């Protein structure tokens, strides 16, 4: 109530933000006549003028500012103030340039969106409001700094399209534009990142960051910093995929045999239920029976049996009361989640989890022929069984994944796109491969990894744009410190959002949908049908075929045609079935998209007539034809003789046909959006609705729902069923009621809140690895960029001595002759450095600090002597090679240890300890041990290694590291997660042969060799951990 009064008096926060922006818009509009009066040369000259003014206001080049770290706040503020001063003029320049180059003039609301993006916020702009053009305003302004601007899209198609589409604006103003695509050559990447503006996907930006932190020469890095970034479809990237880990990995040594062995016993296990689930099943059955009996009474189908039915209804009422009482008692006694006596495993669909019951453990032990599943020798089987249970009970083919060309390919739950290269984490993907009878890929060891959430938080200034973000505003604010501002539409929205239609069963719903689509198609109104899975799309397609309704299907199996199919969804009478978020970033223009159709027409014509042209040339030709710029078109055709007037006329004819088609579509009511199911996130539903009604076009939307839909079944609860019963719902009958709509909205809110809490909690785990990664990468870059790493080595020697003295003296509590003798044995044994520290005769005279300083001086003297014998230049080369190799190897092993820690940390809750606290403590302990072993190994190598090549070889882009995104379906840590396991990409080696240049003189046990002590463990997991 109080919030409603405040909003009534002062408006919403977004309205207040826009009110503050209005004066800036007025200043930009006032400058428009001045910009229109400038000739092209004067308008182009504004870029150099702006750059000069920025340097003058700062008193230095922007590249000299400190924008990262603890002391960056002052310089960040100075830079923002300087850009704010020239913002009105810069935006006015871009507006005029956009009109001269691509015949598009940004509306006032687009100026508002541009200012919001420049301020480092999220601009929520409805579909069709021109987010791509809007972004050019802050992109140009921030690119004036010379620090580079990144524009992030969700796929390669959009990255290239947007870069080529907007590049005439930037090129006119003297700005360079590049884009990053999958499988692009590293030299091309380096060139694209060196441009003022770089477009690319979130995957590519993240992988390039990881690869840059694996190179052995600074010239091999492709990125140049993280200043300003605009994330398109920000909700998808920073919410839906926030915790998707990008991983570069190398093959591990573990066998895949156990995945097949475990999958073999899965069909012999039977599903069980907890006491709570059994009660719910009984309640569901009684509720269904109760509804059916009421239906018979209301329909007059129970003549002569009224007394019998009423008696049964009274019995059902009492049984339901008893079951609810039993459920309450079970909850009080904490027995709701206790397994019943029957069944081998439990499935909890709402949490997407599955686990063995005590009976199931015994049965698995019998089937596998082992005595104790949780014994030391079989602990790894527990992991395989857990993943196999999830693969067989929770993940379904053609819904969560598809099998194509002998591979399991993940289906994006929001867009329906296939995601080649991504793998489910923690061995789940291997379990799915075993389930489908495919070749199981070997599990890999992580070499480098980062989540999108942590990658994007590295930017000095981050902003984003999307069609719907307000429902996730709290999460954007708490995790990314990003405010969400809803930008008004340029024209009033005319779309009619009809109430949901609710059915009892899915079959009833789908038949009603098919009939509605047939009716709309017959009257010529185009229909875009949004589904949630491949299976639902194909099922609906079969129903439409049976009714002779022509249609196009877009799902994971046809994702290559995504942009083409979606762009034409607005044609007269067109029926398009697509997963809810398919085709994001592609405008649906009523009557058809003449630009995309024109490109396809020209490409086919050229191919049929034996002529060839680059894609960029075709795009530019079509753009010039549609702009109607005859002089520019004539000049283009003279320079590119493959194009002629006949081709231009074909495009013009196509354009006229689209315009005529558009009139028919408008008369039919515009695009109709039909949702076949409510998504658990309200913004996904809103985005689907938003595909209709762009720029004031007419349109309509409606969602169809059944009580068998996942959201209703898992989160709707008994209340919805009771409501529907009170409303007298019969089989095949539909209802529209505000109570049902509110109940659905409340279910969605509960799911959103639950998911946010999970992500917020898991962020605390991610912070541990992120802090460690930041430290290691900063150290690595310090070594990589330094011409002289001797100071780093000296620090390592000091830390090594201090660590060993502390270890052998029990942290200084016991420093005596025995301690000194232990240190001598360590130096002569593990370090292989014979040191004469003299006899120790008087224990009382020993001073630990003096002894440590003396030992450090001795080691320093030996190191200088080694440098003199090798030569300073060779020593510097050896230092860099040893430090980088040792750092990479130790970091790789540390990632392996942290993965193992993540897999079992939730067991700490059984000891009444907080898993998060334990993870932080143990993770820090492992990290400190890694740093100590790093110092010891590097120092030991530097005293003994030889340089086989006299000089550093020239840097080469060879064996460029490949990576993949591991689809972290469950997150991490327990009920909502596990570690990451990754696909079969090879580890990165930037310098061919470089890692072989530092050679040990003495024989040494390999890290993956059996430990000489006879334990049977690998050396790195046994006595190798002591050094």
Question: What is shown here, in short?
Answer:
With 1027 residues, the protein is an alpha/beta fold.
Keywords:
single chain; 1027 residues; alpha/beta; 7-stranded parallel beta sheet; 34 helices; 25 strands; 53% helix; globular
Characterise the protein shown here.
This protein has 1027 residues and is α/β, with parallel strands linked by helices. 53% of the residues lie in helices and 10% in strands. The chain has 34 helices and 25 strands. It has a seven-stranded parallel beta sheet, with helices on both faces. Strands 16, 17, 18, 19, 20, 21 and 22 form a seven-stranded parallel beta sheet that branches. It has a four-stranded mixed beta sheet with strand order 12-24-6-13. A hairpin with a 4-residue loop joins strand 8 (345-348) and strand 9. Helix 2 (13-37) packs across helix 6 (108-118), helix 5 packs across helix 8 and helix 23 runs antiparallel to helix 26. The radius of gyration is 33 Å and the shape is globular. The two termini are 65 Å apart. The model is unreliable at 968-1008 and 1012-1021 (pLDDT under 50).
């Amino acid at each position: 109530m109080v919030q409603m009064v405040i909003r009534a008096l002062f408006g919403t926060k977004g309205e207040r933000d826009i009110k503050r922006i209005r004066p800036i818009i007025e200043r930009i509009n006032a400058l428009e006549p001045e910009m229109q009066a400038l000739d092209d040369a004067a308008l182009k000259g504004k870029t150099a003028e702006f750059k000069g003014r920025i340097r003058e206001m700062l008193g230095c080049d922007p590249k000299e500012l400190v924008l990262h770290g603890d002391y960056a706040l002052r310089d960040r503020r100075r830079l923002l103030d300087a850009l704010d001063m020239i913002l009105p003029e810069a935006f006015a320049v871009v507006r005029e340039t956009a009109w001269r180059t691509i015949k598009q003039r940004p509306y006032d609301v687009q100026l508002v969106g541009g200012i919001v993006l420049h301020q480092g916020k999220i601009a929520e702009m409805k579909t069709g409001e021109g987010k791509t053009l809007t972004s050019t305003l802050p992109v140009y302004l921030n690119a004036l700094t010379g620090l580079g601007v990144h524009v992030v899209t969700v796929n390669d198609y959009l990255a290239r399209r947007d870069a080529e589409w907007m590049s005439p604006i930037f090129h006119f103003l003297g700005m360079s534009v590049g884009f990053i695509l999958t499988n692009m050559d590293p030299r091309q990447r380096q060139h694209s990142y060196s441009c003022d503006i770089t477009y690319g996907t979130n995957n590519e930006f993240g992988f390039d960051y990881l690869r840059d932190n694996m190179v052995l020469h600074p010239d091999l890095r492709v990125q140049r910093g993280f200043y300003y970034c605009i994330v398109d479809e920000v909700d998808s990237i920073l919410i839906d995929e926030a915790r998707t880990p990008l991983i570069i990995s190398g093959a591990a040594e573990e066998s895949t045999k156990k995945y097949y062995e475990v999958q073999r016993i899965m069909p012999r296990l039977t599903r069980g239920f907890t006491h709570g689930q059994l009660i719910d099943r009984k309640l569901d059955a009684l509720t269904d029976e109760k509804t059916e009996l009421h239906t018979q009474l209301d329909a007059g189908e129970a003549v002569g049996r009224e007394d019998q039915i009423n008696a049964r209804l009274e019995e059902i009422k009492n049984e339901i009361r008893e079951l609810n009482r039993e459920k309450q008692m079970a909850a009080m006694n904490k027995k709701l989640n206790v397994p019943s006596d029957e069944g081998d495993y439990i499935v909890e669909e709402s949490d997407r989890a599955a686990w063995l019951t005590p009976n199931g453990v015994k049965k698995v032990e019998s089937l596998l022929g082992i005595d104790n599943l949780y014994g030391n020798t079989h602990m790894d089987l527990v992991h395989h069984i857990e993943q196999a249970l999830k693969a067989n009970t929770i993940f379904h083919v053609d819904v969560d994944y598809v099998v194509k060309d002998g591979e399991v390919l993940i289906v994006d739950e929001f867009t329906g796109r296939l995601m080649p290269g991504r793998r489910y984490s923690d061995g789940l993907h291997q379990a799915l491969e075993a389930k489908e009878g495919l070749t199981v890929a070997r599990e890999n060891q992580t070499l480098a990894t980062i989540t999108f959430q942590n990658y994007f938080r590295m930017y000095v200034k981050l902003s984003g744009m999307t069609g719907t973000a307000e429902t996730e505003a709290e999460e954007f604010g708490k995790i990314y410190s990003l405010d969400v501002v809803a930008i008004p539409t340029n024209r009033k929205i005319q779309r009619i959002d009809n109430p949901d239609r609710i059915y009892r069963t899915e079959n009833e719903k789908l038949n009603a949908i098919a009939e509605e689509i047939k009716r709309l198609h017959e009257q010529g109104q185009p229909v875009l049908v949004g589904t949630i899975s491949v299976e639902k799309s194909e099922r609906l397609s079969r129903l439409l075929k049976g009714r002779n309704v022509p249609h196009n299907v877009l799902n994971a199996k046809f994702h290559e045609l995504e942009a083409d199919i979606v762009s034409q969804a607005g044609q007269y009478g067109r029926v398009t079935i697509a997963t809810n978020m398919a085709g994001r970033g592609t405008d649906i223009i009523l009557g058809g998209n003449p630009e995309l159709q024109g490109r396809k027409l020209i490409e086919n014509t050229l191919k049929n007539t034996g002529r060839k042209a680059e894609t960029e040339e075709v795009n530019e030709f079509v753009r010039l034809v549609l702009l109607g710029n005859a002089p520019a078109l004539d000049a283009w055709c003279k320079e590119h003789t493959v194009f002629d007037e006949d081709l231009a006329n074909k495009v013009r004819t196509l354009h006229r046909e689209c315009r005529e088609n558009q009139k028919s579509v408008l008369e039919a009511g515009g695009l109709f959006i039909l949702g076949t199911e409510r998504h658990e996130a309200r913004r996904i539903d809103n985005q689907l609705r938003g595909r209709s009604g762009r720029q004031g076009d007419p349109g309509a939307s409606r969602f169809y729902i059944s009580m068998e839909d996942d959201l209703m079944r898992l989160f709707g609860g008994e209340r919805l069923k009771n409501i529907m019963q009170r409303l007298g719902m019969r089989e095949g009958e539909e209802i529209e009621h505000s109570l049902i709509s509110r109940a659905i909205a409340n279910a969605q809110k509960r799911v959103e809140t639950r998911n946010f809490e999970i992500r917020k909690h898991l962020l605390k785990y991610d912070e541990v690895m992120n802090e460690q990664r930041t430290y290691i990468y900063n150290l690595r870059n310090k070594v990589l960029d330094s011409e002289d790493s001797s100071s780093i080595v000296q620090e390592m020697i000091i830390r090594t001595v201090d660590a060993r003295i502390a270890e052998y003296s029990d942290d200084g509590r016991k420093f005596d002759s025995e301690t000194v003798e232990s240190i001598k044995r360590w130096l002569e044994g593990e370090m292989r450095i014979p040191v004469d520290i003299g006899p120790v005769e008087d224990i009382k005279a020993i001073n630990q600090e003096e002894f440590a300083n003396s030992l450090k001086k001795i080691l320093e003297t030996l190191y200088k002597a080694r440098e003199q014998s090798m030569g300073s230049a060779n020593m510097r080369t050896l230092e860099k090679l040893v430090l980088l190799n040792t750092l990479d190897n130790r970091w790789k092993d540390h990632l392996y240890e942290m993965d193992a820690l993540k897999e079992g940390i939730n067991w700490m809750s059984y000891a009444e300890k907080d898993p998060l606290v334990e993870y932080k403590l143990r993770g820090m302990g492992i990290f400190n041990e890694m740093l100590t072993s790093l110092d010891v190994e590097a120092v030991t190598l530097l005293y003994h290694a030889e340089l086989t090549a006299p000089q550093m070889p020239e840097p080469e882009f060879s064996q460029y590291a490949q990576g993949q995104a591991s689809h972290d379906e469950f997150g991490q840590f327990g009920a909502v997660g596990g570690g990451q396991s990754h696909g079969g990409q090879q580890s990165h080696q930037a310098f061919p042969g470089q890692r072989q240049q530092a050679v040990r003189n003495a024989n040494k046990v390999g890290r993956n060799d059996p430990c000489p002590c006879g334990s049977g463990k690998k050396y790195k997991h046994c006595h190798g951990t002591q050094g």
